[in-house]
From TrEMBL:
<dbReference type="InterPro" id="IPR002822">
    <property type="entry name" value="Ni_insertion"/>
</dbReference>
<dbReference type="Pfam" id="PF01969">
    <property type="entry name" value="Ni_insertion"/>
</dbReference>
<comment type="similarity">
    <text>Belongs to the LarC family.</text>
</comment>
<keyword id="KW-0456">Lyase</keyword>
<dbReference type="GO" id="GO:0016829">
    <property type="term" value="F:lyase activity"/>
</dbReference>
<dbReference type="GO" id="GO:0016151">
    <property type="term" value="F:nickel cation binding"/>
</dbReference>
<keyword id="KW-0533">Nickel</keyword>
<protein>
    <recommendedName>
        <fullName>Putative nickel insertion protein</fullName>
    </recommendedName>
</protein>
Length: 405
């Protein structure tokens, strides 16, 4: 599997992500060709060689025509319409929208308003649209299937914004960093911008040390400021050491705790909360403990960087006073979610692939159960119908629809 690992020793910004990808071999002509599909006018993508503290990289500047875009503070619905109307690949559209939706949610939380009411200011300006869509499209053009990232260097001090002087990390950035490993080494500058944080926290499958990989290319994206450290974002692109041809390998954390003195009704709430927070899997197993007491073994599978927050949930929500955890390798099939129109209604279906071969398809249970209740049909009939029409749609379109998950 081809992956990209971003080493954020000087933070990250949208233009630094673009610069790193171009420096690692992304063709600027192909990138501008993808950006033209947005139909966005009034800007020029300028690419320069740059040196930061003796290390060479690529600096990207999105030069915006002020006469065209003066005072344009976009909202999410307008950005969504622009991306959806474009001729970009469905997966690129989906991932770009996911970045902006995550960003809008963070801004909405900070300003205590609805997501669609957020005025993006710096974040929604033309340069941010180019940075987000360009970053997502650039990774796709390079054939990157998964993104991994180091802990994020955020910087400190204050920064000027459309809202006035703000602390670093900016409030929206801090909101985006929930559950993500971050650090500050005393540099009084904004190293991690909201756009950079939104792109990396949306696309990254994990944060931490570089996974085992065979590096094929290395690129450096230059930041604007002259800092006491090299103001660069490094990306390394290469292939993972796959244990099984055609599948993906990754590291996960496995957490366990045993409880024998809690009202079992609480488990339903705990399991749902863990899933809502992003657990990859949660399951309960009956066990017999000391003095022959029956107990429950709770197992949580999650990203390694989420261990601490899930341990906190387990010990706050249950009567557990200790959680053990370990890292394990797992092999997974590539998965794609497709919204399928059937005679009974629309059902999301998850396809599993070994390379380009479909090895499994599973209709979404909640969608099928809703239709079964509305139509008074047996649930198994709805699921069989959805599965049949999912295969028909896949043969007809051959697309990844909503994109890999």
């Amino acid at each position: 599997m081809k992956i990209a690992y971003f080493d954020c020793f000087a933070g990250a910004a949208g233009n630094m992500i673009l610069g790193a990808l171009l420096d690692a071999g992304l063709d600027v002509g192909r990138l501008t060709g993808e950006l033209e599909k947005l139909g966005l006018k009034g800007y020029d993508l300028r690419v320069f060689s740059a040196i930061r503290r003796g290390i060479g990289g690529t600096f990207v500047n999105v030069a915006v025509d002020e006469a065209v875009h003066r005072h344009q503070h976009r909202r999410l619905p307008g950005i969504r319409a622009m991306i959806e109307k474009s001729s970009l690949k469905p997966a690129v559209k989906a991932r770009s929208l996911a970045v902006f939706e995550r960003l809008a949610d963070a801004e909405a939380t900070v300003h205590r308003i609805a997501r669609d009411e957020v005025h993006f200011h710096e974040v929604g300006a033309v340069d941010a649209v180019v940075d987000v869509v360009g970053g997502v499209a650039g990774l796709d053009l390079l054939g990157v299937e998964a993104v991994y990232c180091s802990a994020l260097h955020v910087g400190g001090g204050t920064v000027a914004s459309a809202h006035g002087i703000l602390p670093v990390p900016a409030p929206a950035t801090a909101e985006l960093l929930r559950g993500v490993p971050v650090y500050d080494q005393g540099i009084r500058s904004e190293l991690l911008t909201p756009t950079g944080a939104a792109i990396l926290t949306t696309l990254a499958s994990g944060f931490g040390p570089m996974p085992a990989m065979r590096t094929a290319s290395v690129g450096y994206g230059a930041g604007t400021a002259d800092l006491e450290i090299p103001n660069l974002l490094r990306v390394q692109i290469g292939d993972t050491e796959d244990d099984a041809a055609g599948y993906r390998t990754e590291q996960v954390a496995v957490m366990e705790t045993v409880v024998d003195d809690m009202d079992p009704q609480i488990w339903g709430h705990v399991v749902q909360r863990l899933f809502d927070m992003g657990a990859l899997d949660v399951f309960l197993s009956p066990v017999q403990m000391k003095k022959h007491r029956p107990g429950t073994l709770a197992t949580v599978v999650c990203r390694p960087e989420h261990v601490r927050i899930f341990a906190d949930v387990l010990m706050r929500e249950t009567t557990s006073i200790g959680v053990r955890w370990r890292t394990e390798d797992r092999i997974t099939a590539r998965r794609v979610v497709v919204s399928c129109d059937t005679p009974l209604g629309t059902v999301r279906c998850k396809f599993a692939f070994r390379e380009d071969e479909i090895i499994n398809v599973k209709p979404e249970y909640d969608d099928c159960r809703r239709i079964a209740c509305e139509t008074n049909l047996p649930l198994k009939t709805v699921m069989e119908t959805a599965k049949r029409f999912a295969f028909i749609r896949k043969r007809e379109t051959g697309s990844d629809a909503e994109g890999a998950i």
